[in-house]
């Protein structure tokens, strides 16, 4: 009986309906007007959309069950290992850096907007380094392995990625004066929208969202980010506001003539939990072990994925440069895109 109750708690916890069930049980509907009540209403949206997406996949005969299965195993594994680590890291960074903020702000709407822009900058830094430093890529690659985009990809993360990400984002925000109470609200908004942009084609076919595609980051942009096509590699690192991608030249819209190919360039058994979760670490350790000299071993850890000590680099930058060079040949149209060095 205790086991069944434990499983039931995990299910309602996964669905995000724990708080709303408590509100209904107590009949305290007035709390729905508060921040906690709003959070209770919003939390179930992504899990319920994921279930709808999976059901539509069955209807369309595109269920991608392999992706859902492995991502669910990752969710369970991470629940066991890292439930409170990220929260502790946020609290630690706030306590450590709040007295050293270089800008003082107050509780006004324009400082909240400022805070969101700063948060996006912190998110850009974490995300960019997650693609450009191989050790960080080992943490982040689990999220990019799935060969199909759907809402279950939201749960595909290495358990140490959230603490690493929140350490960077929180530190940037606190040092630049973002108030902790604003930071909590921003993290909730950004986390919810950041989950939504993983919505798959079974639920939303064309995710450009019309004119919004020009002024914010849409699921279409994030589908591009998860692609391994040369045109799309290492672009669109932002989450809601694409301002920093435009500033640093990593912005890329989806080309209607180029189908998105999801996944990573390394050959992966995407139905194998070990390969999905630890595969990049195993590949890194092999490269470091075989590399001559301590310097080369260390460089494999800090240089971009695809760096080679013999100079035969296959980094995203090299792949994209080769792609655009090929496009510049006679009778081939050149598609311009700026890439952050």
TrEMBL record:
Its main location: membrane. Keywords: Lipid metabolism, Membrane, Oxidoreductase, Transmembrane, Transmembrane helix. It is found in: Endomembrane system. InterPro entries: Fatty_acid_hydroxylase, Sterol_desaturase/TMEM195. One of its GO terms (biological process) is lipid biosynthetic process. It is a multi-pass membrane protein. The chain crosses the membrane at residues 38-60, 72-97, 109-129. Pfam families: FA_hydroxylase. One of its GO terms (cellular component) is membrane. One of its GO terms (molecular function) is iron ion binding. Residues 113-250 form the Fatty acid hydroxylase domain. PANTHER family: ALKYLGLYCEROL MONOOXYGENASE, STEROL DESATURASE-RELATED PROTEIN. This is Sterol desaturase family protein. It comes from Flagellimonas sediminis. The lineage of its organism: Bacteria, Pseudomonadati, Bacteroidota, Flavobacteriia, Flavobacteriales.
